[in-house]
């Protein structure tokens, strides 16, 4: 699924109006009906509704939604916030359509706002994708008042005051909705953890915008939803044998952190690799043999941390990093590995921290190496950024400059390809923010690379599958009780 910028969203509306053809007023009606259909699925008529409208097309949606909901038996109060004399054409037409049906109250100053005594539902249709500056004056006061209300808030298209595709300032006044019901495509703003409070749970409703425009639109931003994620799976052929699925090597663990090696190896074995060898320091030998008899163990000559590179010839992909520590000899191992490796590589955890401290090694990374930092690791690797939009730009530049693929971990893990394209992942949950869950991802990615998924598909699909398994684990155990091993236990289709 594509994510478009504001200019493209406007062009998409215009292309739909022109090519279908449909009037902009009827398109607004269709959008409002789609919103109402979503609403009916959530709330019955026992809850009364207050709709707050601005005077642009988002406000026009608010008026149309009020009319349609009222026609379906909901008790609706409508308020138009009079922050300006100007109103959009479609807003004015919808005002005429509603006037004889429901009383519309004009709010010229904050004292004219209703008191929110019960927990009725608030629909926020003040400002939409047309936001061009922060909300101020009466609008800002109204937004604050709405945010203090007890009942659930639902934003039409996007929370009023939130920019679609660029960062807000910390001081901006923005609606904090429980739900955002957005039209046709998710917005870039929803992908940013900094906007979590200004997004709530978001839902895309189809309003039949021009498919050809969407297909032709050029954008670096994509959303890996269920169907685009599942489409990447390579099904196993009947006549395949273990050689078909490659031989993965995982280099992981040090004294006290052999668990990281176990988790990444188990995840690798459970993600379809034909064969798996785990290279661990001597202290990990028995632990690995017992916890994962399916794996072959390559024992390092060093007792407590990895100090040598094993013979690499038989492997089809390598993952290095979980729990390896940062001893000087381990740094040398990474250096030697980067010089010798001829197969796809994934670098994570301590191996990433080594890279941050030895930037000269960055130049040695083979093309399309996958790196999977969490935000702090990425900061150590690439430097600080003022906000998450800047961080994403930094990551896109980094990926292009070093010709690598970055899985920037977070609520919507961003898989950043070496051409700068970004694929935000849809699966996963807060229960996965727990020790070892990154090691599990490393194992999955190594396994997919061994099975000859392209590095791009391995990264997008691996992150998707990791989140999906996490979602299944959370369902069974709850987000609080689940641990990284539960993610492994729920891998597979
Ligand atoms: N164009 C279309 O065909 C469709 C548009 N739709 C709705 O239209 C919305 C976009 O409508 P608009 O482009 O009219 O924009 P908005 O309704 O978001 O904003 C209205 C106007 O307010 C002004 N404005 C921007 N920031 C302001 C601020 N901080 N304080 C005061 N005024 C400010 C702008 O000049 C803008 O023209 C979408 O979010 C969606 O809800 C939907 O009806 C679907 C179809
Ligand atoms: K809104």
Question: What does this protein structure show overall?
Answer:
This protein is of the alpha/beta class and 493 residues long. It folds into two domains: 212 residues, Rossmann fold; 260 residues, UDP-N-acetylmuramoyl-L-alanine:D-glutamate ligase, CATH 3.40.1190. It contains 16 helices and 17 strands. It has a ten-stranded mixed β-sheet, with helices on both faces. The chain has a seven-stranded parallel β-sheet with strand order 3-2-1-4-5-6-7, sandwiched between helices. α5 links the parallel β4 and β5. α8 crosses α14, α11 packs parallel to α12 and α14 packs across α15. The longest helix is centred in the last third of the chain and has 23 residues. It starts with 5 loop residues before the first helix and ends with a helix. The model has no long low-confidence stretch (mean pLDDT 97). Potassium ion (K) binds next to β4 and β5. Keywords: ATP-binding, Isomerase, Lyase, Metal-binding, Multifunctional enzyme, NAD, NADP, Nucleotide-binding, Potassium. It catalyses: (6R)-NADHX = (6S)-NADHX; (6S)-NADPHX + ADP = AMP + phosphate + NADPH + H(+); (6R)-NADPHX = (6S)-NADPHX; (6S)-NADHX + ADP = AMP + phosphate + NADH + H(+). InterPro entries: Carbohydrate_kinase_pred_CS (IPR017953), CARKD (IPR000631), Nnr (IPR030677), Ribokinase-like (IPR029056), YjeF_N_dom (IPR004443), YjeF_N_dom_sf (IPR036652).
